[in-house]
Fold these 2 entries.
Entry 1:
Amino acid sequence: MKTSIALFASLLSASNAFAPNAGITNRLNMELYSTAVEIEPKEAVKVFGRLAEKYIMLDDSGGMCCYSACSDCEFRLPGGGYKMADQSSARPKWIPSYPERKFESMDKEHITAWSTQIFTDGPMVTKEKFVERVKEMKFNPPLGGPYMSASAAGIEDESTIERLFDVLRGEKENLTQHRMSTRIKEIAKGNEGLIWSDFIAALTGEE
Ligand SMILES: *[C@@H]1O[C@H](CO)[C@@H](O)[C@H](O)[C@H]1NC(C)=O
């Protein structure tokens, strides 16, 4: 059921998100996920392809791990291995949960696109500014979701970005950079980066 997303773009609206007669699949969805919202995957991928990146720093210790097999090391996995410090992908794959991260020991730094392009004039944005700024971000065809070329990825229908804002802000009116960071991590089920499947699940209310 996780992938059954109703395709009724014309019915998208923040205040009236449910289609009254959208068919059996949708009704079933509504019963199972009473907070489900209809999101068009082709619209969602336009947003994901703006926020996602090809590089992520996975190690939230910021490179503190010395990889010397210390017995009480908090960075080791239950199987005895280590968390990888960072990872790259040929296509944008993750929306990093952090605004920026540094690995002092490796002399590496990653400043995320979302933190610099959404929070351009301070640590808080209104819904209006969020929508405007996400829309202006550069799109790259990401890993996950329906294929979308950059030339077809212009955003006319803003409802998906508005929905993302609502998912991130929770009860607050505006969104802070800190809140965006912690919510991304929550939606990503505790992972350092948000991948497509968790992104679309959060938008449709199946988080
Ligand atoms: C949200 O941001 C706007 C614009 O900066 C501000 O006027 C408003 O008071 C803020 N709302 C809250 C609840 O902080």
Entry 2:
Amino acid sequence: MNKSKNLKNKIQANQAPGENTLSIHNERSFAEATGSVMPPIFTTSTFSHGNKEGFDYTRSGNPNFQILENVLNSIEKSKYTTVFASGVSAVTAIVSSLKSGDTVLCEENLYGCTVRLFEEVFKKFGVKTESVDFSNKNSFDLIRENRFSLIWIESPTNPLLKIIDIRKICEEAKKVKIPVVVDNTFCTALIQKPLELGASLSLTSTTKYINGHSDALGGSISTNNKEWNKKLKFAQKSLGLQPSPFDTWLITRGIKTLPLRLEKQVNNAFRLASLLSGNKSINSLRYPFDPYHPHINVAKSQMKSGGAIITANLKGSKKNIFYFCKNLRYFTLAESLGGIESLVCHPATMTHASVSSEVKLKLGINDSLVRFSIGCEDFEDLKFDLIEGLKNLS
Ligand SMILES: *Cc1c(COP(=O)(O)O)cnc(C)c1O
């Protein structure tokens, strides 16, 4: 007994656990005395005053939140994580810490709902934005002007899969002490670690890859900065941005298979991207680790793999492209991404419907653009589905 315990300790002392292990093992379950392998769901709104763990009311914390926050800290390699009801709640938490008159410098190709939140909600409260193409090095001059309260980037961008040099931007921003937020939803910490690249805040919509089963919404923000952590915990409780205990339990369950799912999805995506790039019904294709991607060197310097999203510009009329999207067998035409099931999306009329047509045109989000979220199905089935669909397109 003693011997095996010693062995256990020895392994723990000598070896930092890998990411599969970290995703599976929670620091604690809050039910240690029962031996329950899975944590219980603490469906309670309130806690008796003066309890040992310091919980008071679920809007400001719950054991299920802490369990998920611990797992996210271990894969992000962060000190603090706060979980929220959705990715959009997480965005709200950060922006609500700003004040009237502040300006946020944004990558011009941000997630549609983040843009809507800035333009149609926070603008009314005096928070302004300026957008710039961060894949263009001249954008760094703007950072040096030092007029901004925050820098907001996403990489790869949605849906164009531009790669932004996170390390370089954080270096520039650090010189003028501007915090950088990276929306890391398309990668998760397993592919890209924004905090290690110099960002102050790593934001994720856990609705997507982290949960992976399209059955719950959630968001998270990780940081190593104590002051930011305080602000985010404050926003969680004072704006009512907290998730439900059940959803955080589902996401904690989902994250256990994140490394496995991602491995399969990335492998499928990489192979499909290589296969499709020469297809005669495709004008152009974007995949971060495609040798022809214009930013492949930056992609390789900050991402472990190319992820599992492919964007393609298709040949054919808008009508035919819609027909293609609707008639695939394994790709459901739907918003969202990152789940085990493959999805196809028409950004111009779906995820980016709320973005003005001039902006869409400027960015290159036109009616021929289609985004694939590659799932865990068999490669051969996805291949057959896409190849047959594309044959009927032209
Ligand atoms: C989906 C998404 C969000 C918003 O997350 P929700 O959980 O849907 O609120 C934010 N950023 C990116 C990049 C996303 O894909």
